[in-house]
Specification:
Blueprint lengths: L9 H5 L15 H13 L10 H21 L7 E4 L2 H16 L5 E5 L8 H10 L2 E5 L9 H7 L4 E7 L11 H10 L3 E5 L11 H4 L3 E5 L10 E5 L8 E9 L13 E8 L5 H5 L4 E7 L3 E7 L5 E3 L9 H11 L25 H17 L17
Parallel strand pairs: 2-3, 2-4, 4-5, 5-6
Antiparallel strand pairs: 1-7, 6-7, 8-9, 8-10, 10-11, 11-12
Helix pairs in contact: 4-5
């Protein structure tokens, strides 16, 4: 077997360079470049959205990649893997979707002083927003965390421990097993930053018994702008799945002009969206929301940024296709809420959101595109037409 590993990397094979910055980003081997080109030249389509053959191929490729990442990280099932842009986004996702909801004043978040900013700043902000306290672990003279320090800092007040498996500065491995044992003994969850460990050593989230773990693809010879977050299935909320009743909260806003006071819209997601989180963003206005599904339609005051959390673009049978797909795969999925008559999947679904979906799109085009076209017509030179 050849050991000329440098030949596997086109950049290294073409240039006389000793590349020593893999901790920041790795070079890409030919097989990765080939796989990326294969997808874009033979299977490219919008996954998880279309029911035509090419989109189904793209969806299968996406889910195959998710399953491969699950095996790589030792996850029990592929549904525990969330694709992100990088480790930073994965850690922020845990901080803001989990931390903001489950941490309160008087709770303690334990982190090491040696953490990368990606695993430090989010917890500082969560602590500030929730009133929880940050407790720092200090390494000994040799850079390692001692058992005495863990016993002193991880207490009955601890609700979450965030730690890097391998330090990006010292290259030392944290005593993850000891940290997890102490954290779980007091009912705390453990968030593991695997940015530096995943490329260089086995990471088995099930064996380590961590609750969350994040890593970046570009450090693992994969393309830029990709990452993965592992989340223990038991910690994920039940999927928001079905057609939910919403109420208009700002009827004078042009986007909801002509809307009934209440209307239906589909949702299909695992993530939660709380009103408190949106209210914390002073620039956003909630235009419509659901008691069950949370904020649905939001925008800035000038309408330059508009956010829709549901799927008004779904056609009549999209939820039906998603439900039957998950049932066929043996995935845990409940019948879509308010979708099938008598909650019976054997009956044709009710299409009860089409009118408001069209009205939302028409209002956007009318009031924010056509009537607010960002051009000064007075500056446009008159064109002289020749006969």
């Amino acid at each position: 077997m050849s050991t000329n590993y440098k030949a596997d990397f086109p950049l290294l094979a073409q240039r006389d360079v000793a590349y020593l910055d893999s901790a920041a980003t790795a070079q890409r081997p030919q097989c990765v470049l080939d796989a990326e080109r294969e997808f874009y030249t033979r299977h490219n389509a919008n996954p998880l959205r279309g029911l035509y053959p090419l989109s189904i191929e793209a969806t299968d490729a996406l889910e195959s990649a998710r399953a491969a990442v699950a095996r790589f990280l030792g996850a029990a099932q592929s549904e525990e893997i969330v694709f992100t842009r990088n480790t930073t986004e994965g850690l922020n996702l845990v901080a803001y979707s989990y931390g903001l909801h489950f941490l309160h004043a008087g709770d303690e978040i334990v982190i090491s002083v040696a953490e990368h900013h990606s695993n430090l700043v989010p917890w500082q902000r969560v602590a500030e927003a929730t009133g929880a306290a940050l407790v720092y672990l200090y390494p000994g003279p040799d850079g390692h965390l001692t058992a005495e320090e863990l016993d002193k800092k991880i207490t009955s007040k601890t609700k979450l421990v965030a730690i890097g498996m391998v330090s990006n500065v010292l290259g030392l491995r944290a005593p993850v097993e000891e940290i997890v044992a102490r954290a779980h003994a007091v009912g705390a969850v453990v968030v593991l930053d695997c940015a530096q460990s995943a490329p260089h050593m086995p990471v088995d989230v099930k064996a380590l018994d961590v609750d969350f773990a994040a890593c970046s693809a570009h450090k693992l010879y994969a393309p830029m702008g990709m990452g993965a977050l592992y989340a223990r299935k038991e910690l994920l909320d039940q999927k928001m799945f079905g057609v939910f009743l919403h109420k208009v909260t700002r009827p004078a806003n042009p986007l909801v002009r002509g809307f009934d006071e209440v209307f239906y819209a589909p949702h299909s997601r695992h993530t939660g969206i709380s009103r408190a989180d949106v209210d914390g963003c002073k620039a956003l206005r909630i235009l419509a929301e659901s008691d069950e599904a949370g904020p649905f339609l939001m925008s800035t005051e000038n309408g330059r940024q508009i956010f829709v959390t549901g799927h008004p673009e779904y056609d009549k049978y999209t939820l039906d296709a998603e439900y039957k797909r998950d049932v066929a795969k043996g995935l845990p999925i409940h019948v879509p809420v308010n979708y099938y008559p008598d909650d019976d999947p054997a009956k044709p679904p009710l299409f009860r959101w089409r009118a408001h979906a069209h009205l939302l799109y028409e209002n956007w085009l009318n009031y924010y595109v056509y009537q607010n076209t960002p051009y000064d017509l007075g500056t446009i030179e008159r064109v002289q037409h020749e006969d």
